[in-house]
Backbone:
């Protein structure tokens, strides 16, 4: 599936109200796409556990019933399709074997670039290998020019924290960590990244101070900041000059 379709599915997951057709499209896509299943799980986790805006983030009973019905309908369709899928699987296996034999007789081809990783919202804990040597709270941030991915804990104790940023794109980039006011949430940061002209900071956004650090292609930088004010913090990656991408967030709590 194309990267554009994944992004469309993410937008449907983030929206509170969906039409019947959109729910069918989303349910069908989730039944086949593990990446988007993880994205939806992480989105629901943040919405429920961070408790940034309970009135807006909690799904209504009607929506839960509709989604449950869509999932059950999808399971019934899958049970009906199982015999067809078995036949299709055998056919595909035969085609793969034939194509493999053909490719073995061809000269080596240039490897395709790997598909960019899906952005995450940093749930309870995502492994961050580059942070393993750090004793202080640490987040690992990767940006390929299209997707900003954050790995690490979703809850950090106030004090000094470490941020390891990896520029995997072919352009100069930068990132920032923003503390947001209590009446704002994840959806506000996503809207800011997609629709705010030139990504000018709003009055409810309070940068930590990494915004001016430019990271060249292929560069990994380690920065630290002393975070004292409790609340929700969002991580933004920027493709210069001002194209923002929301990567994820964490909650700062007092020790």
Residues:
């Amino acid at each position: 599936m194309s990267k554009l379709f994944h992004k469309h599915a993410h937008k449907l997951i983030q929206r509170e109200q969906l039409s019947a057709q959109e729910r069918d499209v989303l349910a069908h896509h989730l039944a086949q796409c593990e990446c988007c299943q993880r994205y939806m799980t992480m989105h629901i986790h943040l919405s429920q556990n961070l408790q940034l805006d309970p009135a807006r983030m909690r799904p209504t009973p009607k929506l839960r019933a509709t989604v449950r019905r869509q999932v059950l309908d999808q399971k019934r369709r899958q049970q009906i399709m199982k015999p067809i899928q078995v036949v299709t699987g055998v056919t595909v296996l035969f085609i793969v074997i034939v194509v493999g034999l053909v490719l073995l007789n061809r000269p080596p081809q240039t490897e395709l670039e790997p598909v960019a990783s899906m952005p995450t919202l940093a749930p309870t804990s995502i492994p961050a290998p580059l942070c393993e040597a750090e004793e202080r709270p640490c987040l690992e941030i990767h940006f390929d020019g299209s997707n900003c991915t954050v790995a690490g804990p979703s809850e950090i104790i106030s004090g000094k924290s470490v941020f390891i940023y990896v520029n995997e794109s072919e352009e100069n980039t930068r990132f920032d960590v923003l503390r947001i006011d209590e009446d704002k949430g994840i959806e506000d940061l996503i809207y800011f990244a997609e629709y705010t002209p030139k990504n000018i900071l709003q009055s409810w956004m309070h940068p930590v101070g990494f915004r001016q650090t430019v990271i060249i292609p292929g560069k990994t930088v380690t920065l630290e900041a002393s975070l004292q004010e409790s609340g929700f913090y969002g991580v933004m990656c920027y493709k210069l000059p001002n194209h923002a991408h929301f990567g994820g967030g964490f909650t700062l709590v007092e020790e």
Q: What stands out?
A: The radius of gyration is 21 Å. The domain at 129-253 is CATH 2.60.40.420 (Immunoglobulin-like). Residues 61-104 form the longest helix (44 residues).
